[in-house]
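Backbone-to-sequence.
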């Protein structure tokens, strides 16, 4: 993958450099050649000495034809060489025929001497009797004509400082040829989008933040992007320099410094005696001029400090570094330099297919018949440009090849099979690049950790892997190291570990290279190998981790039986994953495991010897356990997962698990008993009772609360799931002081959630179809993540909003908006928030931020005329008058009348209202949580009351402005009226003012919504996304500062990136997962429709429905929530029950 100049494919060079070697080869011409090459101008220079009388070499003539331009350096003895004169004549012929650009440079000669053939440029025919002489009369005549012609061209006469003069030549060539470096079809597609943020950073002159690092895994295009940025922007700096592959420089770091300084100064003979001196000279060069520097592939902070030195200084220069370290910004903290981190985005699906197609077929699209195979191969590469180039080139095929199309399709199919065989069969070129990061890991424990994760733990919860591997491999620190070195990533929600498929294959190849015999490997993840090992039963001295999933064998559908002795003979086994496996025999010598995942376990009770003291995690989900009762204490156990143990009735002896952190009893539908000692588990952090109706019935009496609960919960509990249970209320005796996460997804009978703890950060009440109200111990809204899809009756979320039907409000509630009561039975089409989906509304009052507002749809009368100040546009201004009775101002009523010009269904953002007190410098911009979408040619009135009386004084200038999408909505008129209070109302208002306190309402604490001094943006939904910052500047002025400090946003709404931060989010390789969803199917036709809709989703490979048990299973590279959203389009209640990552696929 390379970036080339904009020259078409017929040109091999940008410039042909013609000169007389004996005068300038080792001085001016050499410096010019170096300068041209440094800026990426492809330059041809003949490195052989010109011999008098010889014919031009064929490659010289060819190189002239294959160049876009020529630079001819005329020195004193130029015309003494027939070779040089022949080159001149060929160059001018190329100019006449093909618009070949020619730049004459006069080095120590007078152009008039060249034009008139005087002095050293006077040439004559020679009759010396030597056969084959070049100095014939005909040749001399055409050379003279050529000298005259070239001297008449606009050239450059060497003068002044040579360095400056050479820089002028380079700029001239750059400008004349229009050399703009960009991605060609052989380069990284989408380079401009990736360069956009970095180009913005380059133009931003922040003297204390001069460094930007481009980070990413091996082969992700870091070097290519850096070079593109360099060659696209270097002309905007005083000087520039680029060093590729720091570790391969012949003189080490001293050589790097020399190369940087020579590029910056143009002095090719610069001498540096040591690295300290080099750092001082670099510092001076960076301070004196605005310099652009690129240092490629630096992965050691000591090397960085050696090159640039440890001294702090302010500079307008820019330094770009490519590295595999994400935490490179910490390297600069000691010198107080800011470092922006750009985490390079891998290619998306379309870009990947385009790049692969170029290298495989020579075009942007696959050849006919290859598209499906090309898509699969591109998907395997996971957006890694190096892999796409290498694999595409290895399968290169054109229509003219002798291979038949069917033959090549078979070749492609064979290659894909090899890549998907779990063999770790990765191309050597890719392996070598990726393995550099692995080999550079500082500790052997980090390497072992990486291999364990790659073979067994991809897709697992981060916290679980940390607990399982901490003792042996210091996993918390190790995982952070792997993340920082781009060898590992977190899932989008930050909960699971992910690894690029190529990195996983690289790791597995390392393991497979340990031996040709799987029994001598350290890890065995390939199910066919595990099967043979257990069936053979010879054991192993080296295997530490083994995975066997019988469901991967299509020909075997029942449980497969193995002897426990096969595992007992694996003395070093620590990590064991079994699925669909039945074990028989004694467990007396069973391995002392750290991790046991035995899904579909055939045991009814726990036998002695199976669970040993070293166990950290047990997963015996989907098994036949009827009673979980430990025969001995497990002092190391932190995770116990008995999910979907449908026969499980009781869980006993929990006091024997003193360090238990996670207890998962999800969908244990028969469970009725959990021992009381659960309250003594002082380390228990996560408890999952989802889908345990019998247990919950014993714990909560549906419709009431038991006087004596069966057991209490430990006060250490911070995460609790009660999803898919039929209780109506949460008991008030449950006192959880540190609860941060509560999942009540799919509790259809739940009606209210009163006084939730103020510590709560995440709440999920999706598809609680009876839920009406949520309140908190603190009236201030503190949630950071909140999901409430499918809550068709929810009307109040304390601290967020409240919807109340006008019919339920009396005159005191409506105050000065009592005329709206006449429209209480009118229908309104409310949209905007998920709270409106699947519901119909009569006229509602919306309470939010202390503002009361309502929409009246289809209004016919002249209600708008009752307002004091009116405008026929979307804005008005007035000064606050003196009221005759000197009554106190309560606030401001604001209304506007709008409509849609047509009935087309268009995307729109809702109206925003801005109220400004220009005298006091205070302004609020507000968008209600819901808004009314008008029908064509129908008027809608929005009426609101703003309680801003305390901020309005006589004489204040007030502005009202309505902002909306003028393409889809039209404001017909707007109006405003001051609202005054009588004595009784004043007392009530004073009481309300005292209650506001720290509430996020006008008159309370709106500090989290302040975007500029005195300016408040009252909206939690990021309607404008990438345009949010520019919109805020339009609303509040240039000094507005947009942050993400307003906590929760609807999960479907992206959050804009910070202005001064360079953000690029990794596009991680999606792993195949199996999703189990709970769905209530009504009919066979409905089942088929839903199945067909899901099958059409991108990434879905198979769909199976089980109507009788209300289950739907989907397999593919998919997002479970996307699948759930697809089902909800059929107005069905759905819950994602489980999803399992197939890291072994």
């Amino acid at each position: 993958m390379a970036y080339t100049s904009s020259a078409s494919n017929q040109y091999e060079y940008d410039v042909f450099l013609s000169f007389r070697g004996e005068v300038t080869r080792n001085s001016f011409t050499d410096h010019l050649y170096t300068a041209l090459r440094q800026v990426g101008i492809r330059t041809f220079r003949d490195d052989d000495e010109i011999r008098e009388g010889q014919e031009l070499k064929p490659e010289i003539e060819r190189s002239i034809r294959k160049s876009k331009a020529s630079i001819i350096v005329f020195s004193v003895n130029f015309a003494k060489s027939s070779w040089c004169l022949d080159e001149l004549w060929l160059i001018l012929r190329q100019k006449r025929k093909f618009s070949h650009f020619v730049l004459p440079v006069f080095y120590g000669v007078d152009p008039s001497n060249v034009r008139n053939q005087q002095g050293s440029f006077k040439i004559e025919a020679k009759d010396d009797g030597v056969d084959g002489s070049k100095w014939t009369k005909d040749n001399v005549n055409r050379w003279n004509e050529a000298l005259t012609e070239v001297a008449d061209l606009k050239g450059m006469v060497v003068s002044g400082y040579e360095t400056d003069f050479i820089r002028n030549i380079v700029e001239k060539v750059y400008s004349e040829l229009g050399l703009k470096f960009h991605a060609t079809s052989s380069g990284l597609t989408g380079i401009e989008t990736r360069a956009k943020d970095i180009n913005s950073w380059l133009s931003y002159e922040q003297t204390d933040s001069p460094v930007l690092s481009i980070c990413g895994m091996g082969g992700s295009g870091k070097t290519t992007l850096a070079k593109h940025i360099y060659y696209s922007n270097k002309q905007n700096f005083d000087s520039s320099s680029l060093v590729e592959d720091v570790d391969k420089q012949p003189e080490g770091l001293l050589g790097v410094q020399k190369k940087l300084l020579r590029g910056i100064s143009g002095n090719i003979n610069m001498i540096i005696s040591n690295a300290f001196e080099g750092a001082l000279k670099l510092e001076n060069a960076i301070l004196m001029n605005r310099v652009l520097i690129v240092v490629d592939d630096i992965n050691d902070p000591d090397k960085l400090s050696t090159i640039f030195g440890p001294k702090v200084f302010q500079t307008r220069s820019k330094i770009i570094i490519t590295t595999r370290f994400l935490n490179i910004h910490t390297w600069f903290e000691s010198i107080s330099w800011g470092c922006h981190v750009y985490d390079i985005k891998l290619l998306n699906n379309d870009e990947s297919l385009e790049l692969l197609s170029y290298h495989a077929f020579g075009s942007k699209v696959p050849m006919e018949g290859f598209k499906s195979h090309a898509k699969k191969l591109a998907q395997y590469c996971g957006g890694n440009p190096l892999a796409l180039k290498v694999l595409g080139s290895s399968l290169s095929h054109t229509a003219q090849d002798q291979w038949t199309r069917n033959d090549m399709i078979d070749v492609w199919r064979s290659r894909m099979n090899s890549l998907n065989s779990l063999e770790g069969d990765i191309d050597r070129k890719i392996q070598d690049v990726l393995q550099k990061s692995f080999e550079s890991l500082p500790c052997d424990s980090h390497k072992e950790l990486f291999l364990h994760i790659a073979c067994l733990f991809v897709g697992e919860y981060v916290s679980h892997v940390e607990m399982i591997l901490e003792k042996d491999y210091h996993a918390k620190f190790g995982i952070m190291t792997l993340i920082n070195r781009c060898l590992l990533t977190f899932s989008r929600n930050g909960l699971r570990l992910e690894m690029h498929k190529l990195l996983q294959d690289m790791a597995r190849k390392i393991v497979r290279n340990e031996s040709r015999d799987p029994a001598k490997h350290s890890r065995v993840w390939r199910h066919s190998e595990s099967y043979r090992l257990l069936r053979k039963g010879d054991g192993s001295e080296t295997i530490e981790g083994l995975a066997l999933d019988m469901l991967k064998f299509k020909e075997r559908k029942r449980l497969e039986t193995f002897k426990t002795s096969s595992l007992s003979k694996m003395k070093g086994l620590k990590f064991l994953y079994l699925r669909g496996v039945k074990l028989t025999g004694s467990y007396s010598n069973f391995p002392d495991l750290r991790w046991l995942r035995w899904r579909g376990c055939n045991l009814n009770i726990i036998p002695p010897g199976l669970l040993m003291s070293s166990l950290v995690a047990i997963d015996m989900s989907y098994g036949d356990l009827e009673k979980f009762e430990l025969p001995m204490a497990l002092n190391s156990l932190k995770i116990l997962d008995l999910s979907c143990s449908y026969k499980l009735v009781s869980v006993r002896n929990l006091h024997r698990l003193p360090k238990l952190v996670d207890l998962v009893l999800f969908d244990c539908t028969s469970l009725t008993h959990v021992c009381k000692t659960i309250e003594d588990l002082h380390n228990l952090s996560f408890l999952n009772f989802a889908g345990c109706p019998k247990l919950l019935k014993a714990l909560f009496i549906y419709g009431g609360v038991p006087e004596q609960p069966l057991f209490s919960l430990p006060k250490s509990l911070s995460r609790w799931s009660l999803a898919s249970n039929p209780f109506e209320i949460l008991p008030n005796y449950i006192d959880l002081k540190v609860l941060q996460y509560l999942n009540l997804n799919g509790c259809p009978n739940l009606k209210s959630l009163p006084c939730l703890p103020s510590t709560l950060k995440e709440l999920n009440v999706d598809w609680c179809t009876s839920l009406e109200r949520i309140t908190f111990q603190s009236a201030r809204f503190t949630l950071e993540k909140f999901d409430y899809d499918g809550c068709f009756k929810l009307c109040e979320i304390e601290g967020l909003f409240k919807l109340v039907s006008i019919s339920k409000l009396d005159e005191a509630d409506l105050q000065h908006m009592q005329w709206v009561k006449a429209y209480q039975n009118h229908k309104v089409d409310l949209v905007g928030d998920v709270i409106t989906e699947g519901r119909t509304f009569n006229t509602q009052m919306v309470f939010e931020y202390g503002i009361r507002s309502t929409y009246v749809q289809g209004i016919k009368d002249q209600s708008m005329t009752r307002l004091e100040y009116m405008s026929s546009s979307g804005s008005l201004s007035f000064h606050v008058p003196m009221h005759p009775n000197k009554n106190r101002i309560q606030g401001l009523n604001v209304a506007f009348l709008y409509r849609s010009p047509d009935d087309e269904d268009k995307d729109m953002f809702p109206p925003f209202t801005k109220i400004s007190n220009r005298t006091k410098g205070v302004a609020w911009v507000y968008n209600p949580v819901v808004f009314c979408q008008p029908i064509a040619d129908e008027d809608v009135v929005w009426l609101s009351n703003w309680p801003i009386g305390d901020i309005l004084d006589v004489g204040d200038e007030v502005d009202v402005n309505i902002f909306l999408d003028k393409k889809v909505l039209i404001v017909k008129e707007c109006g405003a009226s001051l609202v005054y209070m009588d004595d009784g109302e004043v007392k009530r208002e004073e009481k309300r003012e005292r209650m506001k306190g720290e509430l996020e309402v006008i008159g309370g604490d709106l500090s989290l919504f302040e975007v500029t001094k005195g300016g408040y943006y009252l909206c939690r939904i990021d309607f404008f996304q990438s345009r949010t910052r520019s919109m805020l500047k339009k609303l509040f002025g240039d000094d507005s500062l947009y942050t993400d400090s307003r906590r929760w946003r609807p999960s479907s709404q992206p959050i804009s990136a910070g202005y001064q931060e360079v953000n690029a989010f990794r596009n991680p390789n999606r792993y195949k997962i199996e999703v189990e969803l709970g769905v209530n199917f009504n009919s066979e036709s409905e089942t088929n429709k839903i199945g067909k809709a899901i099958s059409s989703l991108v990434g879905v490979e198979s769909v199976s429905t089980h109507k009788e048990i209300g289950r739907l299973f989907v397999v593919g590279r998919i997002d479970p929530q996307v699948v759930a959203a697809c089902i909800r389009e059929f107005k069905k209640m759905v819950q994602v029950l489980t999803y399992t990552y197939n890291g072994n696929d």
